[in-house]
Amino acid sequence: MKFCIVSFLALGAVFVTFNLHFPERQLIELRIEHADLDAWIDRLAGQMPVDQLMLQRLKKRRLALRDAIARLQAALEPKEPA
């Protein structure tokens, strides 16, 4: 009986680990990170004095995330039939 439970738990762990790497999951995580950066940039821009270097780095990272999101979305979209 223990063997069946352990085997089932091991399969469940493999399934959960496998699900973490699906492109759809990655897309969700990228969108969350992009939204977090948006909020962080807004807060930082509203502070005085503004750390221009930090603001520039965050905006560059946000742009890279937006590009990654666009690439992943394009890869996930079904190909149009010819």
Describe the structure.
With 82 residues, the chain is an all-alpha fold. The protein has a domain at 22-76. The protein is 82% helix and 0% strand. It has three helices and no strands. It has helices spanning 2-19, 23-46, 52-76. The radius of gyration is 20 Å and the shape is elongated. The N and C termini lie far apart (54 Å).
Q: What secondary-structure arrangement, pairings included, does this model have?
A:
Layout: H1 2-19, H2 23-46, H3 52-76
What's the gist of this structure?
The chain has helices at 2-19, 23-46, 52-76. The protein has 3 helices and no strands.
Which percent range describes the beta-strand content? under 5%
Class based on secondary structure composition and strand pairing: mainly alpha
Span of the ends, CA to CA:
54 Å
Helix content: over 70%
Number of strand segments: 0
Main beta sheet strand tally, sense and closure: none
Radius of gyration: 20 Å
Low-confidence stretches: 1-11, 13-17
| Mean pLDDT across every amino acid position | 80
H/E series? HHH
Total of DSSP H or I helical runs spanning 4+ residues: 3
Shape: elongated
List keywords for this structure.
mainly alpha; 3 helices; 82% helix; elongated; 82 residues
